[in-house]
Specification:
The protein has helices at about 15-25, 40-45, 75-80, 100-110, 120-140; strands spanning about 5-10, 30-35, 60-65, 90-95, 115. Helices cover about 40% and strands about 15% of the residues. It contains five helices and five strands. Helix 3 (about 75-80) links the parallel strand 3 (about 60-65) and strand 4. Keywords: Phosphoprotein. InterPro entries: CheY-like_superfamily (IPR011006), Sig_transdc_resp-reg_receiver (IPR001789), TCS_response_regulator (IPR052893). It comes from Steroidobacter flavus.
Length: about 150
């Protein structure tokens, strides 16, 4: 049984996709806090609690787009998974790319899941709802491990 809100970091530069994801999570039954950052540089500053994110909570799960400005999501994934303090955070790649190279590279960089964003609105909401259902209702996340 969940006794606290699940902390989610959504790394997404498309405001429309971010809004849809937030709406889908809002309709779910899991209590969660979603923080949205717009690029890879912001994501790493958030995760490392650098200004302006010094008081940021460590996320329980990260939803990561690959095609980001300033620092690509592929680089962000490699940095997360090579950092002793961050590598246990599950990373769900949520991107428009269906390229086999991106899928293979994401899994070789230790992504926990790879999901291609559907272009259809109803399908997109269903995907976001499925992420919430699976990762926040069924998967056991390492609570407390990241609270330093």
């Amino acid at each position: 049984m969940i006794t606290r809100a699940i902390e989610i970091l959504l790394v997404e530069d498309n405001p429309g996709d971010a809004r849809l994801t937030l709406e889908a999570f809002k309709e779910g039954k899991v209590i969660n806090n979603v923080t949205v950052v717009r690029d890879g540089v912001e994501a790493m500053a958030y995760l490392r609690r650098q200004e302006p994110y010094a008081q940021a909570r460590h996320p329980d799960i990260i939803l990561l787009d690959l095609n980001l400005p300033r620092k690509d999501g592929r680089e962000v994934l490699m940095e997360i998974k090579s950092d002793e303090h961050l590598k246990q955070i599950p990373v769900v790649v949520l991107t428009t790319s269906t390229a086999e190279e991106d899928i293979a590279r994401a899994y070789s960089s230790h992504a926990n899941c790879y999901i291609s964003k559907p272009v259809d609105l109803e399908q997109f909401l269903r995907v976001a709802s499925s992420i919430e259902s699976f990762w926040l209702n069924f998967v056991k996340l390492p609570h407390g491990v990241l609270d330093v």
